[in-house]
Amino acid sequence: MSQQKSKLGKKGEEVAKDYLISKGYEIIKQNYRYGHGEIDLIAKIPERELLVFVEVKTRKNLELGDPILALNPKKISQLKKIAELYLYENQIKEIECRFDVITVLLEDSENPIVEHYEKAFI
Q: Which of 19, 9, 64, 71 shows the shortest CA–CA distance to 40?
């Protein structure tokens, strides 16, 4: 991954993290890695005892299409496996979980456009 692309992704993750915090989510972990895969954000909604695994997709513009289109079946499968490993590694058993996707468009870096897709996949 190029340094520029990595920097863009990190900026998007920070925007997504700030967005979730503003909505009352508690960030448990950022950039949880297992093998070659990663879950960008793991958050909790305290009042609901709900654990949320969040994939963040960031673009500078829409030249390559909507960022949500970058999420393919292979990536979804990988995210599910990593989430299962996180739960196992942390001995978490009795909690509701879901997968969300947050897209961040940074055309105007002062006012990024954030879209939050709750329950993006099962």
A: 9
Is the domain spanning 3-120 CATH 3.30.70.100? The answer is: no
Residue 1 has pLDDT above 70, yes or no: no
* Rg of the chain (C-alpha set): 14
Indicate the pTM of the whole model. Answer: 0.92
What ranges do the domains of the chain cover? 3-120
Residue 98 has pLDDT above 60, yes or no: yes
- Burial category of 23 from C-beta neighbours within 10 Å (exposed 0-12, middle 13-18, buried 19 and up): exposed
User: How does pLDDT run across 33-89, given as a tens digit for each residue?
Assistant: 998 899 999 999 988 889 999 999 999 988 888 888 889 999 999 999 999 999 999
Phi, psi of 22 (to 5 degrees): -65, -20
Give residue for tokens 């915090």. 21
Q: Residues 73-85, buried b or exposed e (16+ Cβ, 10 A)?
A: eeebebbeebbee
